[in-house]
Predict the structure.
Amino acid sequence: MQESAKKWIVDTDWLASHLDAPDLIVMDASWHLPTANRDPKAEYLAEHIPGAMFFDINDLTDEKSTLPHMLPSTVKFASRMKKMGVGDGMRIVVYDTHGLFSAARAWWTFRAMGHEDVAVLDGGLKKWKAEGRPLEDGTPVRRTERHFTPLMNSSLIRDVDDIKQALKKRTQIVDARPAARFEGAEAEPRPGLRAGYIPGARSVPSQTLINADGTLKTEVEIGKIFADAGIDWRQPVITTCGSGVTASILSLALAVLGQNQAAVYDGSWAEWGADESLPIETGPAKELTT
């Protein structure tokens, strides 16, 4: 495994052997699509990795935005982390119940807030349980408040105006939604959104990067998937999806390859697809025309 992969991914053996480390914070960042009718907080309270705290994607948002779970302000994020006892200098490991889904969003959020010492548990709770490892329920012991210094890393974040400029510059954009949604053959799960994709974007459905056990595929496999989609991971890349969650999986996979600056379009299709003034394409991915 390359050094870049080791930095961003930890396996279940590593986590099991480091659970008692005083500087380690484990966080359950499970989140589900609204259509799943699941309560991630309730599921967390029923069972989680010992000592894990709950990273609430729906709470850690910009409450002033009408778009789903947009990045919160640095002030709000730092306040939430401080109260949870998450501070500077701590090693953070995030996971989710699917194996690899919303944990990547939490990983990206920490990095966007300037905290680089964060990794994703490969295979998440799914693999942890399959291996018969210990679980606990209820609320973990409250930690002493710690100071968390946020420093917004704007290089990892893109907004709608950035995407407009990216189209002019022909910057690579890669979409994590399922192929049928990308091509416009299948309706979006959120009402009021057009079907299709940002002109010039390429399609890499996030689940194609993940094995059946919830672990991330090898670097060789990931590199081939992006290359086959027409993406050169060594060049600047912007990732997008429905609402910024699965786009983070693409950014994580690119970081594993060594592209640590793959930015996420936070508003994603929830924003672009709702604005009739913005251009879209349908069908298979096409080259961006002038």
